[in-house]
Design a protein that fits this description.
- By secondary structure, the chain is of the alpha+beta class.
- The protein folds into 2 domains: 2-88 and 214-251, no CATH class; 90-212, Trna Endonuclease, Chain: A, domain 1 (3-Layer(aba) Sandwich).
- It is 45% helix and 9% strand.
- The protein has helices at 2-19, 21-28, 32-42, 49-54, 72-78, 80-84, 87-106, 157-167, 169-177, 197-206, 212-229; strands at residues 111-114, 135-138, 143-150, 181-188.
- It has a 4-stranded mixed sheet, sandwiched between helices.
- Strand 2 (135-138) and strand 3 (143-150) form a beta hairpin.
- Helix 7 runs antiparallel to helix 11.
- The N and C termini lie far apart (41 Å).
Length: 273
Amino acid sequence: MGKLVIQGAWQQLGQDLAADRQWRSIMWSLPTSIQQFATKAAIDVLPTRANLLRWKVGCDSACPNCGVKETLQHVLNSCQHLLNNGAYKWRHDSILHQLVNALQTLHTKSRIMADLPGRTYRLPFQADTDFRPDIIISHPDSTIEFVELTVPYESNWKAAHERKTGKYATLLTQAKAEGLVPTLSCIEMGSRGLPSCDWDAWVSRKRLPKSITRVCPSIALSASQIVWLHKATTWPNPPPMPDLRAGVRPDRSLSTTQPPPAGDLSHWHPAVL
């Protein structure tokens, strides 16, 4: 009975991904290798060790890096080895970079700080907590916005949102004590490129450019494929992931070096092409 429940959950998620027109449109605009990764990831038929054992072509389901059962969720979101070597943070920061750029075009009179390499970042008040949200937007009228991005497995949207909301409750209280008017937005972009309802609501409320609803899922999918390809190899510490959709010009602000042309993944992994 347990197996049937699990299979039903996977089937439903696969149907949700396939039925999402925008996700499907974005996926088909990416290089062929990412299309193949995305469609297999949507229905959990990538050759994880757990799947290989289930298909009777493997003898061990344990992750070679940390010993935990190697499911797709484990590889994309939960492997301690990939967490420690910075793979998940790289994917997260690649998406965060795009959000910050979009926000800066809207809030020209506000100060935007982001927890990204090379950017100035500090809380505008003294806080008795080490927790720092990904984005801080300080407005001239003493309102302050905290934005926290999470890139969870799609089935963990709700848990991630509740965890981050609770995590920053103290920070909100302390901001109010300093005479500020704070708000907190916890948003989730799934590791397979499907945004949560909270993400959609926030993007709509902020009136961000429509392009952000295509760029960020594209980067999430592409970056997760790189994480998958390097799950058992040395992490290459690449520059932020660019938007690889066909016809999209590379964002040259992503790194100090010139990024590869749109559609070119060889900079990250030669087996992709």
